């Protein structure tokens, strides 16, 4: 059995299903979930880039597999933290939520409004990506709060008028009575330690694909697994997981080179490329095909 360390984003059920159903073990992998990193991604953090919880496995030299929004994964690889895998991707919902009593009704109402995000992660990159259709970039005001539990709590406590949320906080926010102002979808990519043999990475993604097929066939038995993504701030909350969505989907197809180029141009346009040392596809991509 090959040993693999993994830190999921908590945005999809696939890792939990693959673990519980033994799909990875069937592929010859002994997968260790780095629960401390997963939980660290949920709570409040205002650490600088490369000091975030999800950065630590790479900064400490551990072999690990992670994922992030597509912009984040190529930026992380460009900053020297592993390489991104172009052969598979995910598609996830996203939204900016406000409390039900908020005066914010339309995307345009978010101009100059501080929006709770997690630094250089999906909740951050999605804000300019979706809002620049509605206002100039200088009117978009993301503020680093940290993990998704912290962002949802900051919204509920009135610390912020708006928060950028991902699965499963989208469903949590709605069960708490919050209102979506704008929503959409975005792609995710995996970033990995390049020391992993290609065969190990292939087996890892086969496990995720088997989980995807199981979820697509009948997701209801797996919805309770969202408990693994319940942030510490809401540990006592009695969520009705049966009403949650399935979260991010795993897509066993590559992103195109043109799409990579577009992602990199967007990162540059938003001024979020200052940590990137390498930006050429061949320098930062690791194909497992």
Question: How many angstroms does the end-to-end distance come to?
Answer: 21 Å
The CATH architecture name of the largest domain reads 3-Layer(aba) Sandwich
* Total strand segments: 9
Instruction: Give the topology string: H per helix, E per strand.
Output: EHHEHHEHEEHEHEHEHEHH
Assembly state of the chains shown: single chain
Class inferred from helices and paired strands: alpha/beta
User: What is the overall pLDDT average?
Assistant: 94
CATH homolog superfamily of the largest domain? Periplasmic binding protein-like II
Shape: globular
Instruction: List low-confidence stretches.
Output: none
How does the major sheet shape up? 9 strands, mixed
Helical proportion, percent range? 25-40%
CATH class of the largest domain: Alpha Beta
Radius of gyration based on Cα positions: 18 Å
What proportion strand? 15-25%
- Helices, by number, come to 11
List keywords for this structure.
289 residues, alpha/beta, D-Maltodextrin-Binding Protein, domain 2, 9-stranded mixed beta sheet
How would you describe this structure to a colleague?
With 289 residues, the protein is α/β, with parallel strands linked by helices. It folds into 2 domains: 2-91 and 187-284, D-Maltodextrin-Binding Protein, domain 2; 93-185, D-Maltodextrin-Binding Protein, domain 2, CATH 3.40.190.10. Helices cover 32% and strands 21% of the residues. The protein contains 11 helices and 9 strands. It has helices at 14-20, 23-26, 35-40, 56-59, 70-78, 122-131, 148-156, 169-175, 198-217, 257-269, 281-284, and strands at residues 2-7, 29-33, 65-69, 83-98, 114-117, 141-144, 162-165, 179-192, 249-251. Strands 1, 2, 3, 4, 5, 6, 7, 8 and 9 form a 9-stranded mixed β-sheet that branches. Strand 5 (114-117), helix 6 (122-131) and strand 6 form a beta-alpha-beta unit. The protein is globular, with a radius of gyration of 18 Å. The model has no long low-confidence stretch (mean pLDDT 94).
């Amino acid at each position: 059995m090959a040993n693999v360390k993994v830190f999921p984003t908590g945005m999809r059920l696939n890792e939990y299903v693959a673990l519980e159903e033994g799909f990875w073990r069937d592929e010859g992998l002994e997968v260790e979930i780095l629960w401390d990193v997963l939980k660290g991604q949920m709570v409040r953090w205002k650490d600088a880039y490369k000091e975030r919880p999800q950065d630590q496995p790479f900064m400490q030299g551990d072999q690990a597999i992670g994922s992030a929004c597509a912009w984040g994964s190529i930026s992380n690889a460009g900053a020297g933290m592993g390489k991104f895998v172009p052969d598979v991707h995910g598609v996830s919902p996203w939204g900016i939520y406000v409390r039900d009593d908020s005066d914010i009704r339309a995307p345009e109402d978010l101009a100059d409004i501080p929006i709770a995000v997690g630094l250089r992660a999906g909740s951050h990159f999605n804000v300019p990506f979706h809002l620049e259709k509605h206002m100039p970039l200088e009117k978009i005001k993301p503020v680093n709060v940290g993990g998704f539990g912290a962002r949802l709590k900051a919204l509920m406590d009135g610390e912020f008028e708006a928060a950028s949320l991902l699965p499963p906080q989208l469903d949590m926010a709605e069960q708490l009575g919050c209102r979506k102002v704008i929503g959409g979808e975005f792609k995710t990519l995996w970033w990995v330690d390049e020391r992993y043999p290609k065969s190990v990475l292939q087996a890892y993604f086969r496990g995720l694909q088997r989980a995807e097929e199981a979820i697509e066939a009948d997701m209801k038995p797996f919805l309770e697994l969202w408990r693994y993504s319940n942030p510490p701030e809401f540990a006592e909350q009695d969520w009705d997981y049966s009403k949650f969505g399935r979260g991010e989907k795993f897509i066993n197809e590559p992103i195109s080179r043109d799409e990579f180029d577009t992602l990199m141009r967007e990162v540059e346009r938003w001024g979020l490329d200052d940590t990137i040392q390498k930006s050429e596809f061949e320098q930062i991509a690791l194909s497992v095909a």
